[in-house]
Each structure stands twice: as structure tokens, then as C-alpha cells.
């Protein structure tokens, strides 16, 4: 049974499907979740986390001290400091598909989502480190786990996609992929809405195109998971 972790990172609390000032990334995430529920007839295997409205605590000096202390040597305050991170990582480990609604803010993910990334990219839990290891002292701990990341984004301008006129300015998908590849999640799909700041027919067309792509992506992932389970 496939388990979904659905994350929203937009600072806007509503979907643009319901509110003219709402979030396009929330709109795509909600559409993905609805299509998945429709395909499976249940939402019991979808865990939802809204880091846009309830962001994790940012990494602190105490967090770093605790994370880089061996578990058996941690003091009680260290375990307390890492408790939120542990919960977020547990959600990630339990998920087969991570659906992340991440809008572009000033060419990169929102700070709220970066805080989530910083909490789940953690030594000893999602990546390994051994300074005495020959070659690369770091290695991914989630490699081979069969996880898929879906990035659902939105952009004010246009041309940020592959081969686009300002692709080099897009640090959303690339930075997220870098972090996920580092911990061993390399199957990454993405859909994005553009033209938000233009608010004209081009935005409407981009929304329709992205929604169709989300629907097709859900069908593809359902089929892939069925084939994997049957193998």
C-alpha cells in the first residue's frame, strides 16, 4: 500500500482554486491528493503537513551540537532539541511518495520549506558520515528505498523551466533535488505554474496545463506502483 506525505510550503493559507489571492502550489497539491484519493478510494494513507503555516524550528547551535553527538552519548536536552526533527524524519521514512507544494520566493524555496529540509537532512538518520571512510566520507541512507519526490511549484515570471530563457535563475527544483539526492531520493518529478504576476490569459493557460500534468502524473505513479507491487 502506497503511503503519501503531502507538504504545503506556501505562506498563502488558501488555494488559488478557492481564493483569487490563494496559492497556486497549494492548488496543485490539493489536486494531486484528490486524484490520488479518487484512484484509491481512501485518504487513510495520506499524511499532511503544512510547513507554510506551521514551519519547523530553524536549525540552531544546540541542534547542531545534538545532531553531531552520537545517540548513545546524548544528554536529555539533546534528545528534546531533536524531537521535532525526529518526527519529521519519521514521516519521511514512512512515505513512499513525497508531494511537496513549494512556490518560488525570490528564485528559491520559501524559508519555511528550507527549515524543513534542514531538519530532515541529518547525519545518522538520512545520511551517513565517517571521517575515516576511504573516498567519500558521506553516503545516503535512503538510497534504494524506492521513494519518489513530486515538486509542485509556482512562479511569478515565465521561462524558468528546462531550456527556458531564465532557467539559470530557478533555484527551487534544483536545490530541492540536490538535498534529496544527497540522502538517496533520486526519483524526482515536477510540475509548475508560471505567469502568476501577469494575471492574464497566459496564467489561465499555465494553470490548465499544470493541472493536466498533475492528473497525468498521478495516473503514471499509480500505474508504476501497481507494477512494482506486482513484480
UniProtKB/TrEMBL annotation:
Cofactor or coenzyme needed: FMN
Keyword hit for Flavoprotein: yes
Coiled coil: 200-227
Reaction catalyzed: 2 a quinone + NADH + H(+) = 2 a 1,4-benzosemiquinone + NAD(+); N,N-dimethyl-1,4-phenylenediamine + anthranilate + 2 NAD(+) = 2-(4-dimethylaminophenyl)diazenylbenzoate + 2 NADH + 2 H(+)
Enzyme class: oxidoreductase
Residue ranges with Basic and acidic residues bias: 1-11
EC number(s) recorded for this UniProt protein: 1.6.5.-, 1.7.1.17
GO molecular function terms listed in the Swiss-Prot or TrEMBL record: oxidoreductase activity
The Flavodoxin-like fold domain, residue ranges: 3-213
Family annotation (InterPro entries): Flavodoxin_fold, Flavoprotein-like_sf, FMN-dep_NADH:Q_OxRdtase_AzoR1, NADH:quinone_OxRdtase_FMN_depd
Keyword Coiled coil listed: yes
Region (Disordered) residue spans: 1-22
Residue numbers binding FMN: 10, 23-25, 104-107
Free-text comment on the cofactor: Binds 1 FMN per subunit.
HAMAP family for this protein: Azoreductase_type1
Subunit and interaction comment: Homodimer.
Function: Quinone reductase that provides resistance to thiol-specific stress caused by electrophilic quinones. Also exhibits azoreductase activity. Catalyzes the reductive cleavage of the azo bond in aromatic azo compounds to the corresponding amines.
Protein name per UniProt: FMN dependent NADH:quinone oxidoreductase
Organism in which the protein naturally occurs: Aminobacter ciceronei
Phylogenetic lineage: Bacteria, Pseudomonadati, Pseudomonadota, Alphaproteobacteria, Hyphomicrobiales
Amino acid at each position: 500500500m502506497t503511503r503519501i506525505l503531502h507538504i504545503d510550503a506556501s505562506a498563502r493559507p488558501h488555494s488559488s482554486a478557492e481564493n483569487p489571492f490563494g496559492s497556486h502550489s497549494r492548488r496543485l497539491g490539493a489536486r494531486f491528493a484528490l486524484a490520488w484519493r479518487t484512484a484509491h478510494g481512501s485518504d487513510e494513507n495520506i499524511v499532511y503537513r503544512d510547513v507554510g503555516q506551521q514551519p519547523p524550528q530553524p536549525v540552531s547551535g544546540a541542534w547542531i551540537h545534538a545532531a553531531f553527538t552520537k545517540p548513545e552519548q546524548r544528554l536529555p536536552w539533546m534528545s528534546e532539541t531533536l524531537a521535532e526533527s525526529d518526527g519529521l524524519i519519521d514521516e519521511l521514512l514512512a512515505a513512499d511518495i513525497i508531494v511537496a507544494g513549494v512556490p518560488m520566493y525570490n528564485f528559491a524555496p520559501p524559508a519555511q520549506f528550507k527549515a524543513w529540509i534542514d531538519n530532515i537532512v541529518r547525519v545518522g538518520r538520512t545520511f551517513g558520515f565517517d571521517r575515516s571512510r576511504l573516498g567519500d566520507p558521506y553516503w545516503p541512507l535512503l538510497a534504494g528505498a524506492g521513494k519518489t519526490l513530486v515538486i509542485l511549484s509556482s512562479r511569478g515570471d515565465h521561462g524558468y523551466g528546462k531550456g527556458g530563457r531564465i532557467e539559470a535563475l530557478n533555484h527551487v527544483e534544483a536545490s530541492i533535488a540536490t538535498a534529496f539526492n544527497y540522502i538517496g531520493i533520486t526519483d524526482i518529478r515536477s510540475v509548475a505554474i508560471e505567469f502568476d504576476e501577469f494575471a492574464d490569459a497566459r496564467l489561465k493557460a499555465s494553470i490548465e496545463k499544470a493541472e493536466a500534468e498533475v492528473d497525468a502524473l498521478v495516473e503514471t505513479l499509480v500505474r508504476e506502483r501497481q507494477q512494482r507491487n506486482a513484480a
